Amino acid sequence: MSSMTDARPRVAEFDMRAVERQRRQRSCRTRHRERRTCAPTVSYAECSLVASSIAAVVSRSPLCFPAGTCSRAKQDCRAAATPFRHARWGNPDRVHIVVTGATGNVGTSVVEALAEDADVSSVLGLARRLPSWQVPKTRWARADIAHDPLVPHLRGANALIHLAWLFQPTHDPVTTWRSNVEGSIRVFRAAAEAGVRTIVYASSVGAYSPGPKDRPVDESWPTHGWPNAGYTREKAYLERVLDTFEHEHPDTRVVRLRPGFIFKREAAPAQRRLFAGPLIPGELVRPGLIPVVPDLPGLRFQALHSADAGQAYRLAITRDVRGAFNLAADPVIDAAQLAELLNARTVRVPTAALRAAVATAWHLHLLPASPHLFDAVLRLPIMDVTRARTELGWSPQHSSLEAIRAFLHGLHQGVGMDTPPLARDAGGRLRMREFTTGVGQRP
């Protein structure tokens, strides 16, 4: 199966043939002068060349034409652009994508986005626990990235989207390190051995070093994370791993997506279990029932809807881009906006006092989210998403406020999905399973 890198010579060869062929044809001004169907300053060869050049660079973008281009020229230009799309993947009828962590919050949205893409013929979703959820073009396989063989699953794949991640147990950082860091290294090595030529990795805003809250930073901001928090430490370490990987495998296209906080309605119960624990009644987290929102220095963050994140991963696969892309929707969220969403009021709270409360609850195994993650969130920079909009062609369809509203609605309704991580009753009856297995102590 031809890779995208292998397809480049054929794209160049086709381009030369197309240009030579168009040079021999009469201009559309001469051909259609009497019909007056085309602007006299735009030639047929010129508009075909423009359209072909655009198609060679951005295979899925709609073709743009100069003002006054005739209808016949537009039709022929679109026909000329078709071979570029086919050359992009080699065989357009056999585009196979592998997704690790395909049953979680982002994974389910990625699988849905890929299933709707006409250029993707099949998707293999890898997960530790198989779902009953069914999606067109998609089949499932059980695989734990920390120790199961991965090369057999990756052979024949055009691209890999690596999403698998353990947020828990926060009380056992060795377990999360072995899965998230060592497991990811196993994934990257297996992809190289299997000949996968495109890797899209789920990085995070958490990979960034502490940064400003009053101005956005682009993808060049340092990625050293916040060293005390396991999540940010692991995300930052994998940035260095990928730096080395790209140096050793220059023919592999590597894309790193760095999103803000990702929400959707169906993932709300799972996120409550992962970060809030069994003592937080999700059914009561709704407007009017929470009286106050703490107004903390540094409480400014970015969010996006999971469906928009899924589209970003799809674009990273289907467009010939490399490097890092920040992902977030407008507006930036602060305490005042959270209070407005909840019909509450803001109250200034000392950061030290709230952190002490979080630390006490975490040490007593009443709260799964660690105080170190609390520290990291208050230090996250605000990201500039210009590159994602201009180079990736990504534009979120939901605002950050809509994403949080969907999350709050999901908490109140207790909805989920037919996948083990997002199952509505994963915590057991009356959430006793969350207590008996140890809050913040199991994957």
Notable characteristics:
alpha/beta, 443 residues, three-stranded mixed β-sheet, 42% helix, 2 domains, 16 helices, Rossmann fold, disordered N terminus, seven-stranded parallel β-sheet
Outline the fold blueprint:
Blueprint: H1 4-23, H2 28-31, H3 44-57, H4 71-89, E1 96-100, H5 105-115, E2 122-127, E3 138-142, H6 151-154, E4 159-162, H7 173-194, E5 198-202, E6 216-217, H8 230-248, E7 253-259, E8 261-263, H9 268-276, E9 292-295, E10 300-305, H10 306-318, E11 323-327, E12 329-334, H11 335-341, E13 345-348, H12 351-363, H13 371-377, E14 382-383, H14 386-390, H15 400-413, H16 432-436
Parallel strand pairs: 1-2, 1-4, 2-3, 4-5, 5-7, 6-14, 7-11, 8-10, 9-13
Antiparallel strand pairs: 10-12
Helix pairs in contact: 1-3, 1-4, 3-4, 5-10, 7-8, 12-13
Give me a quick take on this structure.
The chain is an alpha/beta fold. It has helices spanning 4-23, 28-31, 44-57, 71-89, 105-115, 151-154, 173-194, 230-248, 268-276, 306-318, 335-341, 351-363, 371-377, 386-390, 400-413, 432-436; strands spanning 96-100, 122-127, 138-142, 159-162, 198-202, 216-217, 253-259, 261-263, 292-295, 300-305, 323-327, 329-334, 345-348, 382-383.
